[in-house]
Amino acid sequence: MAEQPTCSCGANEQKRIIFPCAGQANTGQLTNLAALQLTEEGYGSIACVALLAISAESLVANAKKVDEVVILDGCPMLCAQKIAEAQGVPVGQHLIMTELGITKGPSKSYTNDDVETIVDACWKGAGRKTCPEPKKAGGKDGGCGCGCGNTC
């Protein structure tokens, strides 16, 4: 597991919600397993993408106010990302299992190494967009605004 980058302002504890796509193929099943492991490791909290899809008020509200929403999609259909976008939930990190080198196949066609590949990619921020410029103190671009240059 990679170490979290530190911020000079001391605000290192991010609150994250992780939405796995939960598809029936192995890549969808892997999103669930990885989200569970990431939750156990303290990276964030797994949440139900189906509840997000039906506009569950408290979940949508929470997803809009956490530091980062992490979307784990199994394949290029991008179901979980589309659901988040439809609810107006900003996505901070988006990983697609097939882009991590995992071949889509039958539901039980995966290994523990596949789960670790996803978990490691999340901890490394592989699906995260970076800010075009370092944050300015008091900036409104998300994060702590201390100028540490962390991602958006």
Fold and architecture overview:
It is a single chain. By secondary structure, the protein is an alpha/beta fold. The chain is built from five helices and four strands; from the N terminus they run E-H-E-H-H-E-H-E-H. Helix 1 packs across helix 5 (112-124).
Give the topology, please.
Blueprint: E1 16-20, H1 26-40, E2 45-46, H2 49-53, H3 57-65, E3 68-73, H4 79-86, E4 93-96, H5 112-124
Parallel strand pairs: 1-2, 1-3, 3-4
Helix pairs in contact: 1-5
Strand arrangement in the largest pleated sheet: 2-1-3-4
Return the average pLDDT rounded to an integer.
85
Spatial separation of the terminal alpha carbons: 21 Å
> Helix fraction?
25-40%
- Report the total helices: 5
The radius of gyration over CA amounts to 15 Å
Could you state the oligomeric state of the chains shown? Answer: single chain
Main structural class: alpha/beta
Please tell me the total number of domains: 1
- Overall 3D geometry? globular
Q: Tally of extended strands?
A: 4
Indicate the low-confidence ranges by residue numbers: 6-10, 132-152
Q: Strand-residue fraction? A: 5-15%
State the major sheet.
Answer: 4 strands, parallel
Question: What are the secondary-structure elements, in order, as H or E?
Answer: EHEHHEHEH
